[in-house]
Amino acid sequence: MLNQRRFWIPAVIIAILVSIVLFWLNSPSEKPSSQSDYGVTSQASFNQLEFYPLQQAVDEKWYKPNGDWLGRLILPTPAEMQAQFTGLDGVWIEIYNAPNKGLIGQKLALTWQDKPELNDYIKLVTTDIRFDEAAKKSVRRGNVNPIRLNGRSQVGPLQSLAGARPKDDVVVKLKDVQSYLNRTGKIFLKIEIPPIMITGRFVGLVEIIGSVSKGSVPETCPGVSPCSSEYFEVVHYNTKTERFDGEKEIIRIPQQPLSSTGRFYSTPYQLESSLVGEKGWYIYGAKDQEGIFTVQALKPRLLFQLSPEQTIMGEYAASYYINTQNWQDTPRRKGKSERSLVEIEDYTQNKIKEGDKSLIIHTFGGIGGQKGESALLGTVTGHFSYGIAEVIRDPFTKELQYNLEYQQIYAHNPAGIISGTHSWQNYMGNLQRGWSYTRPVSDVIVHADVMADYNFKGVVFSPLNELISQLKVMAARYRTGDGTGNASVTPAASCVQDSNQALYIALSLLKQKVEQKPEILDWLQNKPEDAQTLRFYRFASLFGQLEAKLVPKQVVRPDWQQNADTLAGIKQTKKYAFIQEETIGNALLSWHSMLPRESHDLISHIFLENRAKLHFIRTNQIGGWDRTIVPIAPTSLFGEVPIVSVAARRMLMGSLIFPKGQGWLITGGILLVYGIVALIIGFTTGFLRWSGQNINNFALLKGAFIAFFTPALLEELIMRVAWLPHPLEDVPSDLWNTWALLGIIIFMVYHPLNAVTLYSRGYPTFLKPIFLILTGLLGLACTVAYRFTGSLWSITFIHWIAVIVWLFFLGGNERLESQHLPRFTAKKRPFRQKVS
Q1: pLDDT value at position 590?
Q2: Ramachandran region of residue 571, left (φ > 0), alpha (ψ -120 to 50) or beta?
Q3: Could you tell me if 817 and 782 are in contact, meaning their C-beta atoms sit under 8 angstroms apart?
Q4: Which of 164, 225, 392, 563 has the fewest Cβ atoms within 10 Å of its own Cβ atom?
Q5: What beta strand segments (E) does 45-162 contain?
Q6: 484-511: string of b/e by CB count within 10 Å (b at 16+)?
């Protein structure tokens, strides 16, 4: 019989790989704590909004408001909702700045404009909130869940934003505001675009000269004891001379308290020596009760200038930068930044101009060092999101620069970071919870003309806007946990999974629009050489590649498909309802979206191949110096362990793709061709002979069951899947074919080696030339099938059928039983026998 001891090996390997991924995805990155980081840091007076007087007097020569409409969101009581916002999704907003300065300090009503698409968005994400057990457990673990919303009905996106934290401390910027008086004479503000979370009422551009002795020093800090002063002398940017020779001022950049993780979110220690501050810092904040401007967020001017520090050009160099160089030697780059333009060719594109908008692909890595995070088997997870980079004119320098806004799909967390639209300074530069000070970050600004708007006879087709719309829907759902009060990281739902679900839904809706709008098809048919038509066809190519990666081999997650159908109107429902099936099966179907680094690099590659210019902004724990931490790059599965990590990822990729109809047709066709060729060769040479007259059914079933795992699954897993680059890795064909040929040779050589070592039953059959020829043909058939299907199960099926037919129907068992020699016979050692 076949060697049964190898029965469990392949099953155990796959089980271990999948279990590791699922365990990691479900494990908290930090030790559970009864108190949130938000609760700890909010105790500091400078992190409380009451610390800053409502009425501010700043010198307009040196400071600008952080937006035309600014304010603090306030959650209405249930009684206020019934009295003031009947049938509406509304909140109060305490005005910090407005075009009409007389409104500053007033508490106004804020709600939505009445527009069909906006009403659909509100209806889709409005829900009753009843905390489930997972939400209660999340709160006990120290996460910030929307406890004030628990028990409320018909909570809309504005309410979920205002009530996301225990206190009314969400500061936002509003765009496209309309104001009107209701029947009682109260002023209502109406918006079309969801509020943008920001930090600081005012912004200034300064050069930091150094710390000064003033006031008391912090009790704890990451520098040497005693801690340095929080007060700094700065000099403002002079718009007349275009230099930093304006007014000098003493400002405060507070040292944040130690968080529950034992780390500091930021520190001003040696901030004046930071390399990224060589062109000045934007300081965001307001004056405290003593009239000292206190900084709440920092943003280095250098990072957002349009001109890169280096240009990487050429297909190989660009791919190498994305895969390797972008994150290379991250720990040694601590405190530094890099801005690189990556492109295959210098494509002729319109010059970047004010108002241009581009997609952002955002990822950050891990924290190492003395107070670092744990990394499971070398896997540093990180975080992923999309966003928009707009080219704006800086109000101080008048230069064009990038303004970054993220669409964060963010689970409930200890820091109180809220899922939604964030400005860079709020998400990255916020001293209380920003990530730029503690993590390495990669922001890819994608300059792709195919993502710009199209206008087909008045029908607007906007890929970028559609993606942002779906991300806003997803963000609002995360704030409420779809009514459960909890959004947590699972194998099927995470920042990277659901950011890419939003991308998939956006692509599905765009496809639906093309099919339903005759104006688009008429334009494409009647104007085949038009510039917009040619650009649209390039978008169609991009669309196809993105879809292929999000749904490998056309196998779509059922919940993703149902959500897309609902939004497209294909699936008619009485009530808008998003489906989130957090099953292992769904997680495996969207395995390309499991790891932030994987998606970051993969999506970047796709855009690069479609003539996009990629502007990388890389930072590595910038700002003040914290000697207790080190930046660690995000990784794919098992990190960068040589051989092991690559093989593990390939085995996981191959095992998670199960062929659909077309895949099985290809598999069956290849098996049929192989069978015909093998039968002709086998019967012609006499190696094969019919032997299926007296088959024992039990022996057949038992043998088939064992043969599926070994040799079929085990050999294909190791010699095909772990050895070959997965077809979705986009390895050049000549390189892939070289690896494939070597793999077939190894597959052939393995069998005689196995026969003279571990599997003596195969001696001398496995050494016969005709057996090796048929083995090589089987290896070729499985290799071709793997190239087309990318599935371990497809090639295992071919291998399995070939083994069963040979053993039980074509004389294989008889040949092995009658010809094999005892394994440890002294006078008949296998290596000394003459091959017959």
Answers
A1: 54
A2: beta
A3: no
A4: 225
A5: 64-65, 69-74, 91-97, 107-112
A6: bbbbbbbbbbbbbbbbbbbbbbbbbbbe
Contacts of 750 (CB under 8 A, 6+ apart): 715, 719
pLDDT on residue 29: 47
Beta-strand runs (E) in 609-651: 613-620, 630-632
Residue from 648, 545, 657 nearest 590 by CA? 657
Q: In this structure, what DSSP letter does residue 52 have?
A: S
Its sign, for the CA torsion 223, 224, 228, 233, is negative
CA–CA distance, 696 with 540 (Å, rounded to integer): 56
Provide block-wise average pLDDT over 10 residues at a time, the chain (836 residues): 42 50 48 75 94 94 96 96 91 96 94 93 92 93 96 96 97 94 82 97 97 88 86 97 97 94 93 96 96 98 96 93 94 96 81 94 93 76 94 97 97 95 98 97 96 94 95 93 86 79 88 90 94 94 85 63 58 48 52 77 93 96 94 78 73 80 92 96 93 82 92 94 84 88 95 90 92 96 94 95 94 81 42 34
Q: For residues 765 and 835, give the distance between their C-alpha atoms in angstroms, rounded to a whole number.
A: 9
pLDDT at 823: 46
- CA–CA gap between residue 319 and residue 565 (Å, rounded): 35
Half-sphere exposure of 81 (CA within 13 A, CB side): 18
Integer Rg of the chain from CA: 31
* Nearest C-alpha neighbor of 384 from the set 297, 471, 306: 471
Whose CA is closest to 293, among 168, 394, 200? 200
Nearest to 155 by CA among 129, 136, 194: 129
413's tokens: 């967390």
pTM of the predicted model, to two decimals? 0.82
How many CA atoms lie within 13 Å of 498's alpha carbon, on the beta-carbon side? 32
φ, ψ at 238 (rounded to 5°): -100, 115
For tokens 């912004």, the residue is 203
pLDDT at residue number 301: 98
- Residue-level length of the chain: 836
How far apart, in whole angstroms, are the C-alpha atoms of residue 623 and residue 437? 6
Cβ-Cβ contacts under 8 Å for 305 (sequence gap 6 or more): 279, 339, 399, 401, 402
Pairing assessment for the beta strands 107-112 and 187-191 based on DSSP bridges: parallel
How many C-beta atoms surround the C-beta of residue 817 within 10 A?
Answer: 10
State the amino acid at position 293 in one-letter form: F
Pseudo-torsion of CA 583, 587, 590, 595, nearest 10°?
150
